[in-house]
Amino acid sequence: MSQEKPLILVTNDDGITAPGIRHLIEVMNELGEVVVVAPEGAMSGQGHAITINNTLFLDEVKIDNGPQKEFKTNGTPVDCVKLAVDQVLPRKPDLLVSGINHGSNSSINIIYSGTMSAAVEGGIEGIPSIGFSLTTYKWDADFTAAKHFVRLIAKEVLKNNDNLPQPFILNVNIPYLPLEEIKGIRVGRQANAKWIESFDRRVNPHGREYFWLTGEFVNFDQGMDTDEYALQNGYVSVVPVQVDMTNYKLMEKLKNWKLEDE
Amino acid sequence: MSQEKPLILVTNDDGITAPGIRHLIEVMNELGEVVVVAPEGAMSGQGHAITINNTLFLDEVKIDNGPQKEFKTNGTPVDCVKLAVDQVLPRKPDLLVSGINHGSNSSINIIYSGTMSAAVEGGIEGIPSIGFSLTTYKWDADFTAAKHFVRLIAKEVLKNNDNLPQPFILNVNIPYLPLEEIKGIRVGRQANAKWIESFDRRVNPHGREYFWLTGEFVNFDQGMDTDEYALQNGYVSVVPVQVDMTNYKLMEKLKNWKLEDE
Fold it and tell me: Which stretches of A62-110 are assigned E, i.e. beta strand?
């Protein structure tokens, strides 16, 4: 990293006015020069969606008195990263942070999460990227402990900035506990868990049936090296993330299949 | 697999009336009992998006004279799989097929693709799942060769149905060539490639600036075992896909970092 202040891109999926991103911006302002490109509204569950069949707006906004530059878009979190890189930032940023998400993105949630998809997109772009999530949906949650760990982890990544493998992507989940009750940080793997959906079926005033997606999170993983285990035991969970989705074990197995034409 | 006909769930991201899914349904009708749950319109680039902040409709429709049952939704491809499993299907299907997508989903495209995200969701649900894509965006493309390989691969998966690891997810990309020019099938890995975006900036009739996402696909991977290599050399590419996004190599490295509080 050069002598100049690190350039930090901030985004999220809860929208640019969500408390989680406002707290994240506050911490990042201590660490570098901050540019925010974030969705104008809630984009939870957007996964790695991008906007192909529609147009995107990008408007500079001023939300508080901080020194950061801020832009809001009608796009998804991944669109935000792409717009930032191509249209807003003067150079490749030294760090991308996404969040602080209201709600956990541990385990399989990484796949559905707009917060983490923005971080993954940053990783694809060659930017060291961290997604931060707090394990509560409370809009007025106390972010004191979260901010402590955000600062600690972001500083460590910036310190190692010249020596990071690519892609460098972290999924950081912080248990919603008072700072003194958090036992530390655990680096681990994504737990084998899933959502068992159960749609809530209703009828609208015009007699048409409709559904709300709901579900129950089930953890099948007994391992003590998982993100779920860390969170349930009072630790901040750090899971490094890759973008190669190849299943190498299955690849070897498939080579024995008769997939050739005759 | 039991003696009864296999139950096959069909979905896509180009919408229920797209030629690609109509051809896919035709082939699946030869192999089992078919249920279609697909988006009513185009959902390209939706990634693993799910609908949390809106309601979903699910309407039975009749589009052609085939024996399949069909339902359209206003949801994403992943919503389609969730709705099918929870609201439509009498039991867990023996196979999920998604596509045939109009356009390649090789390499990093898997992360943005609604077609592949539906297959990934099927894998998470414990359903053997295959996403099929044809490397042309032509709406009136000739699907003859594609259907040949769809049939061949789907039959092989159904044949091995009792003995598949979980998750079982395949990303199948078929080069747009006449059948006799396709050299065979190659099982391989996801190439290391990315999109370099370049937004097309315009001004609308009201004077407001807006953007269209465009970009150039760049393959950094010289390997001969990748999906890109297979496609460029006239082979059908089969990449098995996982849902554990943990970067294990980086996990080991991070354990040497001073991430602990003091």
Answer: 69-73, 95-102
Q: Cα separation of B57 and B46, whole Å?
A: 18
Distance in angstroms (rounded) separating the CA atoms of residues A221 and A225: 10
Q: Please tell me the distance from the alpha carbon of residue A103 to that of residue A44, in angstroms, as a whole number.
A: 10
Q: Do B250 and A153 touch (CB under 8 A)?
A: no
Taking the CB of residue A107, how many other CB atoms lie within 10 A of it? Answer: 27
Pairing of strands A95-102, A7-11: parallel
Q: How many CB atoms lie within 10 A of CB B186?
A: 22
Write down the domain spans for chain B: 7-190+223-254
Question: Does CATH number 3.40.50.1980 belong to domain B7-190+223-254?
Answer: no
Structure tokens at B100: 């045939």
CA dihedral of residues B40, B46, B48, B51 (deg, nearest 10): -60
Do the Cβ atoms of A99 and A12 come closer than 8 Å?
yes
Could you report the predicted ipTM of this complex, rounded to two decimals?
A: 0.91
Asked if A47 and B48 come within 8 Å (Cβ–Cβ), the reply is yes
* Residue A108: closest CA among B78, B114, B245, B77: B245
* Per-residue pLDDT tens over the stretch A94-135: 999 999 999 999 999 999 999 999 999 999 999 999 999 999
Written as one string, the DSSP assignment of A28-62 is HHHHSEEEEEEESS--TT-TT---SSS-B-EEEE-
Structurally, at CATH architecture level, domain A7-191+223-254 sits in 3-Layer(aba) Sandwich (3.40)
Mean pLDDT across B215-222: 93
For B54, nearest residue in chain A (alpha carbons): A212
- The reply to whether residue A185 touches residue B111, judged by beta carbons under 8 angstroms, is no
Length of chain B: 262
Question: Residue B147 corresponds to which tokens in the numbers above?
Answer: 């259907």
Q: Give the gap in angstroms from C-alpha B210 to the nearest C-alpha of chain A.
A: 5
Give A210-245 pLDDT, tens digit per residue: 999 998 999 999 999 999 999 999 999 999 999 999
Task: Choose among B83, B165, B250: nearest Cβ to A250.
Answer: B165
Task: Return phi, psi of residue B205, to 5°.
Answer: -60, -15
A202: chain B residues, CB-CB within 8 Å: 55
Q: What are A4's two structure tokens? A: 């100049």
What residue in A sits closest to B208 (Cα-Cα)?
A: A57
Calpha distance B209→B201 (Å, rounded): 7
**What's the rounded Cα separation, in Å, for the pair B229 and B188?**
9
Give the count of alpha carbons within 13 A of B32, CB side only: 26
